[in-house]
Please model this.
Amino acid sequence: MCQDQIEALKECHATTSKVRFWACNELKFAMDRCFKMEKQELLKRINADAEEKRKREDEALREAMGRKETFEEFLMNDKTYLKEMEDAKKVNGGSYRKTAFS
Model:
């Protein structure tokens, strides 16, 4: 998809003096924009059915573990987990993140 931009940048580097290091910037920016668009398209395709995949995975896990609830539902009913999260929230001024990265 971005082959034209790549070839143009290679040609610019091959034919432009190294003293003028900024001479190929516009071509580099165009290539970067192309790569960004290409990545966004790829992520759209990869994640198109992410929600459905997640549901299938949750269902398979519940079936394997012999449970009727999802992991999130399990955590919301786990008194120990809820107490630990509440304690962490108090200690860290309302933020759970600080416990994970400190």
In short: The two ends are 43 Å apart (CA to CA).
